[in-house]
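Why should sequence recovery work at all? Because a backbone constrains its sequence more than one might expect. Tight turns favour small or flexible residues, buried strands favour hydrophobic ones, and helices have their own preferences. The token representation captures these environments compactly. In the example below, the structure is given first.
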């Protein structure tokens, strides 16, 4: 195939212990999947059906990056999340079979221009410019299911400049991994390469130029990110 302009590169995540990389197809994000975070955002944490938004695939940033501070925001927030990477796809997947789709897991940041998201919410407008901006999805290398199993519990935390800001446990997900995959597969057909960011615990808050972020999920990995002054 020849193209009339330069074709975009395939976005990939490294896989621990593999030379080959994981090609990322789409990034789905679960909203308000921790009750304490739903509360801090002013919502009732009752078990409403999960809802989803997307980030553009090329928002992925490799682990350890140093980035220019994002444009067009005065309120950039960190959201540390478990990342689920699918090796198989399908539609209408039953909960009992949903984990069969998973290739591996990683640690990601759903970076959020909270001021733009808040404005969008108020106006009943889409969230994309608050959520799906350039370099908004830093992510670690993946660990395969063979190595890490299907982590359903374990600490998840985020530090800014060495101070713990977010702390939770994977077992606090309102919708767990298999339920989330099953639910999403009834909304869209899932494909190998799709990744799902599983939502963030309480403690989201602002980042500033010069900040150093460290995120962790037990058994899954550690993510660092630095913003230039
Ligand atoms: Mn999020």
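From this structural description, the recovered sequence reads:
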């Amino acid at each position: 195939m020849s193209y009339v302009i330069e074709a975009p590169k395939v976005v990939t995540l490294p896989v621990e212990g593999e030379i080959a990389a994981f090609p990322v197809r789409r990034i789905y994000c679960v909203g308000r999947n921790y009750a304490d975070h739903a509360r801090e955002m002013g919502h009732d944490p009752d078990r409403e059906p999960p809802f989803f938004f997307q980030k553009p695939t090329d928002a992925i940033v490799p682990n350890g990056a140093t980035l220019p501070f994002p444009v067009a925001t005065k309120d950039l927030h960190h959201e540390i999340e478990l990342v689920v990477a699918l090796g198989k796809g399908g539609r209408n997947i039953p909960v009992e079979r949903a984990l069969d789709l998973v290739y591996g897991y990683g640690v990601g940041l759903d970076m959020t221009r909270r001021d733009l998201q808040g404005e969008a919410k108020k106006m009943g407008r889409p969230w994309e410019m608050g959520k799906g901006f350039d370099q908004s999805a830093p992510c670690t290398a993946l660990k395969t299911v063979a190595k890490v199993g299907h982590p359903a519990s374990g600490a998840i935390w985020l530090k800014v400049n060495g101070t713990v800001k977010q702390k939770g446990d994977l077992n606090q997900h309102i919708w767990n991994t298999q339920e989330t995959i099953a639910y999403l597969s009834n909304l869209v057909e899932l494909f190998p390469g799709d990744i799902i960011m599983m939502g963030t615990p309480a403690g989201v808050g602002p980042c500033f130029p010069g900040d150093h972020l460290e995120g962790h999920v037990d058994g899954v990995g550690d993510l660092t990110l630095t913003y230039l002054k």
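A few observations help interpret the result. The longest helix spans residues 114-123.
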